[in-house]
Amino acid sequence: MKPQTIGRILGIGVRVTGRFVGQQISAATQPSVPASQPSGGPGQAVAARPLVSARRAGQTSRGIARGVGGFLAPFRRVAGVLWLEVTGVFFFLPVFVFAPTLWRVRTNWARGPEHSTFLLTGSVMLVFLYLSVSSFWRARKR
């Protein structure tokens, strides 16, 4: 799926859920209307209350989300840098694991019984070295 499609689906789901929760909250706080009261009179004001309380709940939740997001912004950056550095370390581990094998078969790099082992080990080491260095590079750019 495209990221835009996933975002739309999540956005619609959040809006529908918010509307549902707002209606449930307003229904729980709404006083019951007596059956003898006519529906054309003050009952209309009662019908408008769920919309007002739903808007108020939406504004409150939006304000809380904005406040929490502002509080967590510095931690998000630090966590991203830390994640990239830890990932870089884990990508560097296979380089250490395959280094002895590459050193052992270094004399057979052109021809020999372990020529394919040398090429495969060297390729794996280069890929993981690239991933490690690029991860540290991206962490430094942040």
Write the layout of secondary structure elements.
Blueprint lengths: L2 H27 L13 H62 L10 H27 L1
Helix pairs in contact: 1-2, 2-3
Number of strands: 0
Low-confidence stretches: none
Order of helices and strands: HHH
The N- to C-terminal Cα distance equals 28 Å
Proportion in helices: over 70%
Largest sheet, described in full?
Answer: none
**Could you tell me the radius of gyration in angstroms?**
30 Å
Give the class from helix and strand content and strand pairing.
Answer: mainly alpha
Average pLDDT works out at: 81
What does the overall shape look like? elongated
Strand content: under 5%
Task: Tell me the number of structural domains.
Answer: 1
Question: How many helices?
Answer: 3
